[in-house]
Amino acid sequence: MEDKKKVRSNCGVSLSLDIIGDKWSLLIVRDLAFLGKDTYGDLLKMEEGIATNVLADRLVVLEKAEIITKEIFVGSKSKFKYRLTEKGIDLYPIIMEIMFWGSKYCEVKPEQIGIAKMTKQQRDAFTKDVMKKRHKELTERS
Amino acid sequence: MEDKKKVRSNCGVSLSLDIIGDKWSLLIVRDLAFLGKDTYGDLLKMEEGIATNVLADRLVVLEKAEIITKEIFVGSKSKFKYRLTEKGIDLYPIIMEIMFWGSKYCEVKPEQIGIAKMTKQQRDAFTKDVMKKRHKELTERS
DNA sequence: TTTATTTACTTGCATTTTACAAGTAAATGC
DNA sequence: GCATTTACTTGTAAAATGCAAGTAAATAAA
Question: What is the pLDDT at residue A2?
Fold first, then answer.
């Protein structure tokens, strides 16, 4: 994995996709943001089955981009805890919109079908709530 | 380019990223959605410089996914017009959220800096407006 | 205290995707 | 009738991803 910080343009969409525009990054953020996962092992077990080297690689990229932080578990020397930064938590609205689009146009699992029927207000409220929770965790620990 | 319809899971985020989770698809949609582009040549000239074979490949994928349509220009046999479907127009809120995140955390070009300062209401209104315009075009032609 | 297991990776290699340069073929413009 | 436009295709190199196996330190179990 080389350090290649080449930027395609200065458009916000392009700059963002330079970082998160791949098939895995947002799934990692999804699992951290609302599936309660926070270790390498947890993330490795995500239902989509990410390859171990790809996960390792992505975690380094996301950490360098300051989307996640890596810290040692208290009382343990062999466990690390990955957590979203504020920048990472702010990716949540993107994920929510993607999830909404998916639930509208793709054959999603039963639990997610309902999302397509949510009103914009409901979705916004849900998004706000998740972000608030993660943000609270973030400020409480330091 | 092979037909590989393998799906990683039935999560809406994952299913969506199976289609649009790459560095180019959403930039193509961006250019179609609000830069007024509609031909292969136009898209090829996008500021990020997409490779010609990648563009050709992505257009096929997006057409198969029913995100865009391809039609012949009236009065011309050598020009094609690419346009967003409703499913494609519905990607706009995702792009808008990505643009917002980018304008907040990346070094975007001067014209986009202001986006980071927009209130949620303003962004929602803008998004709604762009979608309304595209949707109007879509219904007017048929 | 030795042994097994957990945790977080790395390494090597095959496959796929993307990048870059060049070429093609039909339609149009001059 | 010849150059140009338009929309690609082809070939090849480089990068990203997928898969299987291996490693090394820390912890738990016997």
Answer: 45
Q: In the 111-130 stretch of chain A, whose C-beta falls under 7 Å of nucleic acid strand D?
A: none
Average the pLDDT over B49-74 and give the result: 95
Amino acid letter for position A97: E
- CB of A82 within 8 A of CB of A76? no
The amino acid at residue A69 is: T
Write down the pLDDT at residue B127.
Answer: 96
Express each pLDDT in B65-94 by its tens digit.
999 999 988 788 778 999 999 999 999 999
Looking at the partner chain, which of B12, B26, B107 has a beta carbon nearest the beta carbon of A13?
Answer: B26
* CATH entry, A12-141, from 3.40.50.720, 3.40.50.150, 3.30.420.10, 1.10.10.10: 1.10.10.10
For residue B1, pLDDT over 70 is answered with no
| pLDDT at site A5 | 64
State the pLDDT at residue A37. 95
Give the C-alpha separation, B89 to B34, whole Å: 10
Q: What is the C-alpha to C-alpha distance for residues B88 and A74, in angstroms, rounded to an integer?
A: 47
Measured between CA atoms, the residue of chain A closest to residue B95 is A13
Query: Does residue B93 contact residue B132 with C-beta atoms inside 8 Å?
Result: no
Rounded distance, CA B99 to CA B32, Å? Answer: 15
| Residue B2's pLDDT band (cuts 50, 70, 90) | very low
Q: Are strands B80-84 and A80-84 parallel, antiparallel or unpaired?
A: unpaired
User: Is B28 within 8 Å of B59 (Cβ atoms)?
Assistant: yes
Closest nucleotide to A22's CA, by C1' atom? D16
> Across-strand partners of A68?
A84
Q: Which nucleotide is nearest to A60 (CA to C1')?
A: C9
